[in-house]
Amino acid sequence: DAKTTQPPSMDCAEGRAANLPCNHSTISGNEYVYWYRQIHSQGPQYIIHGLKNNETNEMASLIITEDRKSSTLILPHATLRDTAVYYCIAPVNNAGNMLTFGGGTRLMVKP
Amino acid sequence: GAVVSQHPSWVICKSGTSVKIECRSLDFQATTMFWYRQFPKQSLMLMATSNEGSKATYEQGVEKDKFLINHASLTLSTLTVTSAHPEDSSFYICSAREDNEQFFGPGTRLTVL
Description:
heterodimer, B: mainly beta
């Protein structure tokens, strides 16, 4: 897996967009960018993934830079239930292989 | 997405006893399951990869004789922590692979007294 770097923590006001950055400057052509989140004392939850193009689903948007060296996960309207640790992972090929979890970003959504 | 369950969700045991944790894929068949361990305020660490019908592959530093993994069917993998000690207290999480995606269970919190 490509090494990923994320800020250890971030705060966001409830109702505002939360923009979580991830640096993966050594990513190779066959490595996707996956985002998971882990709410306290629960298993990780899949959010979104992408290879080159930006992606959007009902949970979030993923913006990948053209050179693929970094990406941003966007939660458009953060709620208190979005408080969690967010992990950016770049596995080889896909998430069907072992995943290497880094430190992640602890997002605190505040009222 | 696919659903993965774990049982029990939490367990407290005495030092020296063995504890079995079950991981089930509820609505799909998983030839590959993964076992992770997470200590407080740390990230998930992969312990082993479990393949149905064959021996598990353990990560470096994980004792295969202490953490016994059995993947006897396409929907069930078990992790047995043998002769548990307080340092084995942790949050154990399994995941199952379906196609090219990985789905995680809710975790099992083990406390060894």
